[in-house]
Amino acid sequence: MLLRKRDGGLLNEKDWLELFSGFESGEVPDYQLAALLMAIYFRGLNLEETIDLTRAMVKSGDVLDLTAVPGFKVDKHSTGGVGDKTTLVLAPLLAAYGLPVVKLAGRALGHTGGTLDKLQSIPGVRVDLSEEEIVEQAKAIGLVVAGQSERLVPADRKLYALRDVTGTVESLPLIAASVMSKKVAGGADGIVIDVKMGSGGFCPTLETAEKLAEFMVAIGKELDRKLVVRISRMEQPLGQAVGNTLEMAEAIRTLQNEGPDDLKQLVLTLAGDLCLMAEPEKPREQVTAELEELLRNGSALQKLEELVAYQGGDPEMVRNPEKLPRAKVKLAVTLMEDGWLQHLDAAAVGRVAMRLGAGRKVKEDVIDPTVGVILWRKAGDEIHRGEPVATIHAASLEQAMQAKQELEQLFRLGPRPIGQEKTPLVDERIWRSF
Ligand code: URA
User: Fold this and answer.
1) pLDDT for the residue 187
2) Per-residue model confidence as pLDDT tens digits over 305-322
3) Confidence of residue 107 (pLDDT cuts 50, 70, 90)
4) 175: Cβ below 6 Å to ligand 1?
5) Which residue of 299, 313, 349, 394 has the fewest CB atoms within a 10 Å radius of its CB?
C-alpha cells in the first residue's frame, strides 16, 4: 500500500480497513503509517480514494445513534481558527429555535482554539459524556456540547496524532476525510461546515478552501448526509476575544445580542443554513429575523444556561459572566503612531495567546483558561497613537510584557484604509450535498 501510493497508485476502502486493523494489532508500525501519510501529502488522494478513506474511518468505530431524539438534529464544524467561539453562540441559538444540537467538539491545539476548553472555562462543566448521557440530554434540553468518545472514529485519533508530528496535517483529502468521518459518525441529520480561509485556519488561500469544500460535499453526497459548506475569512481573529474565559464571555455577550458584528453575522449565516435545511420552504429573511429575535428576547442565552447546568457547571456564570475567574495581570497595548490597520495576522495572534497559556503547543500541555488577548482594533480600523489597541490578560507581568512586545509587531499600519469592508466575512456561495 505504501509503495503503491509512493509510486502514484490508488488506494481503496479495503486497503484502509486492513491497514487500520494491522495498526490496531501492532502488525503495522507507526513509522510505516507515517511514511504513508507523507506519500499522501505529496501524491494526494483523488475524490474516490478520499470517499473510501472516509468510509473506512467511520467503520473503525461506532456511529452515534440519535434516533431516540425527536426532530431534525443538526451539527456544525469549523476547520479551526483563532477567536472562533461560533459554536458557543450557534448551538444554543439553534436549540432555542427548536432544532436539537449534538455537537462533539475538540480541544485547542497549536495556534487554534478548541470549543471544549472554552466551555470548560466555566468551572465544573463536564464534557466527557457517555453516549447514553448525550442522548438523554439531547432529549431533555435539545442541546449537547461534549467531547468525542474514544469509540467514535478511533482511526482519526491515530491518524491525526501522526499527522500532527509529521507535518502532514495540511493535506486537503486528509482534512476532508478527518472532518467528514467525524460528522458522519456524529449522527446528525443536517450538518454545516465552516471552512476557514486565511492564516488562522488550514486553508491559506481561497483556492484551497474551495477545493476542500468540493471534497466535503462530494463525500456528503456519497455517504448520504445533508451537508452545507461555507467559506469564511480567517486572516484575522474572529470577534475581539482570544483566550478561553474571554471568548466564553464574548459568546455570552453575543447571546445577549451585544457581541461583535463579525461573529453575529457568521452565526446567523451558518444557523440560517441549518434552519433552511430543516424548513426549506421558509424565506431566509424570515429565518434570520426569527434567530435575531431569539438573541434579543433571551431565549438563546437561556439555552446556554440549561446546557451549563445540565453538564455540571454553575448557570449563574452565564447570567453574570463577570464572576468568571479572571487573569491576575491586565496590560494595555498602545502604538506610537497614527494610521489605518492593514492586517492583524490570525495565526500570529493565536500564537501569542498560546504562549500566554491559552493554548497548547503539544496535546499534553495544561492551559490557563483566564489568559488571552482582547483586540480593540481590527483590520480596516483607524488607529490613533496612544489609544489602546488591545488588552493582554496574563498570569504574570513578565508574560504580559513579552506578549505586548509581540503584539505591537503584529499591528501593521498604513496611511489609508484597506477597503476590507468590501470583502464579506462569509463567502456568499453555498456548497451543498443535496
Ligand atoms: N479539523 C479536523 O477535525 N481534522 C483535520 O484534519 C483538520 C481540522
Assistant:
1) 94
2) 999 999 999 999 999 999
3) confident
4) yes
5) 299
Q: What is the structure's pLDDT at 202?
A: 84
Query: What's the pLDDT tens digit per position in 409-424?
Result: 999 999 998 876 567 8
For a ligand 1 pocket test, name from 76, 178, 363 the mutation site with the most ligand atoms within 8 angstroms of its C-beta: 178
Q: Whose CA is nearest to atom 8 of ligand 1?
A: 79
HEC assignment per residue over the chain: CHHHHHCCCCCCHHHHHHHHHHHHHCCCCHHHHHHHHHHHHHHCCCHHHHHHHHHHHHHCCECCCCCCCCCCCEEEEECCCCCCCHHHHHHHHHHHHCCCEEEEECCCECCECCHHHHHCCCCCCCCCCCHHHHHHHHHHHCEEEEECCCCECHHHHHHHHHHHHHCCCCCHHHHHHHHHHHHHHCCCCEEEEEEEECCCCCECCHHHHHHHHHHHHHHHHHCCCEEEEEEEECCCCCCCEECHHHHHHHHHHHHCCCCCHHHHHHHHHHHHHHHHHHCCCCCHHHHHHHHHHHHHCCHHHHHHHHHHHHCCCCCHHHHCHHHCCCCCEEEEEECCCCEEEEECCHHHHHHHHHHHCCCCCCCCCCCCCCCEEEECCCCCCEECCCCEEEEEEECCHHHHHHHHHHHHHHCEEECCCCCHHHCCCECCCCEECC
Q: Ligand 1 centre from 36 Cα, in Å?
A: 18
Residue 178 annotated in active site: yes
**177 alpha carbon to ligand 1 midpoint, in Å?**
8
Residue 135 pLDDT greater than 80, yes or no: yes
pLDDT at residue 406, as a whole number = 98
